[in-house]
Amino acid sequence: MLGETQLSRCQWSHGAPGIGLVFLKAAQLLDVPAYREVARKAGETTYAYGDFRDNITQCIGLSGCGELFVELYRDSGDDTWLTRAHEFADLCMGYRAELPEGDAWPTDEPGLYSADFMYGAAGMGHYFLRLQQPQEVSMPFM
To answer: Model confidence at 35, in pLDDT bands (50, 70, 90)?
Structure first.
């Protein structure tokens, strides 16, 4: 809940972004307007907590949280959500590591880099693609 001081989880796999994504998809499939309101509140909560985990991954970080904003934008057309998704992308860029081999994206462990979707570069790349064409590029399995 927004305002909780002991919140340890507010990310796609453990909190508001994942809940918001489920309720938004349920609203679309079942035509229940109240579910959209739950999704919107989950988006507000996610935005309010921002980068509280110092993490960029899809699973437990900024890019996964930003996915809810992209989906809320796709559903509502409200530019506020797309602006927020871009804000989270800007925060993500601050984590990019320039290594001798090229740019790398950290996982949830300091000094560890991965190419995978949930914890690495593939997820970041997909998130950035969605921001370029939010109406055309959807989330896998959604």
So the answer is: very high
- Residue of 45, 25, 47, 44 lying closest to 35 (CA atoms): 25
Strands (E), 49-105: 97-99, 102-104
C-alpha 116/C-alpha 4 separation (Å) is 32
Task: Please give the Cα distance from 137 to 140 (Å, whole number).
Answer: 9
Give me 131's structure tokens. Answer: 């921001």
pLDDT at 70: 97
Distance CA 109, CA 81 (A): 29
| 90-112 core/surface letters (b: 16 or more CB in 10 A; e: else) | ebbeebeeeeeeeebbbbbeeee
**Separation of alpha carbons 138 and 97, rounded Å:** 27
> If residue 36 lies in a helix (H) or strand (E), which one and from where to where?
helix 33-49
Q: How many CB atoms lie within 10 A of CB 118?
A: 18
